[in-house]
Amino acid sequence: MDIAFMDDPCATLDLPRSSRETPKLIVYDLDDTIWFPELYMIAGAPFVKDPATKKTTDASGVEVRVYPAARASISLVDTHEAFSGTKIAVASRTHRGQWARTLMSMFDIADDGGARSLAQCVSFVDVASGTKKAHFARLREASGVEYEDMLFFDNEGENC
Question: By its UniProt entry, which Gene3D superfamilies does this protein fall under (predicted)?
Fold first, then answer.
């Protein structure tokens, strides 16, 4: 099944036709993969979400934004029947874990009024200092999903 993806009607996504073709766990990094700016670049909490504009800002008024493609892919995995057997996880190397969890609860993933937050879409969270190798070992243990059944998105190639 092909569907239009994001704002480009010419871009289509060929969705898997069976659960054997989908990963069991899709893991996203947070900083500069799901949102920008990165946590080390901002003033931090308290974070404020404007109910009218849905913009989220840090203590100094800097807006933290979810990338449209990240929002679209998470929404697709969270809601489309082709991904019914797929869970979502995040793995982020930061010592600002509480900021990350707060922002995850503030960002809506769909703009249809019945949106779920990023935190509600995610089944496993590993946000801590350390290496991605350590994150994945913990995610494998927590989820029971083998590495070959995981798909990982990160802006830093050295993490992949």
Answer: HAD superfamily/HAD-like
